[in-house]
Write a structure and sequence with these properties.
globular, three-stranded antiparallel sheet, 6 helices, 187 residues
Amino acid sequence: MPTKSHLTHLECPECGATYDPQQLQTFCQGILSGQPCRSPLLARYDLSRIGSELTPSIIRARSRGMWRWAELLPVQDPNCRITLGEGDTPLLTIPRTGARLNLLHLYVKDESVNPTGSFKARGLAVAVSKAIELGVRAFVIPTAGNAGGALAAYAAPCGAQAHVFMPQDAPRPNLREVKASGADLHL
């Protein structure tokens, strides 16, 4: 049986308003000090339930990739979970830098092995998947580069439109990545 998200609600960190995570949300619609709050919303999960049900052995038995952590991600419908193989990127030891900083165990996460070459793949995989689950079929993103490539890459497999806005001097590889995925690029 596919795992389900244990997402319970969305919450405003400023005014405490709560929202249904199965409805499309943008930002807080509450009032704070007589003014519209408009704060970003935070996803809240049933961590007690996750803690009592999820064990390291269960995680180890699952297929590798970001979605093996489904209980801690917001997408309920497994059919909406888009993946290009993101996640499970290696931790690399950097002992010489660690020694110079007097840190015995210093590591760097190598996000370059994600499908779009950056950590943006993780966030956009989740964001596009959740939006698809909620019925969104077109996306817009302003970016200096990597986020645009990731949005384009994750929108493509589900046939969604992606409109990417980049500065004229954005790195050429990022421009090519957006175009190669079929997104609408605006400079």
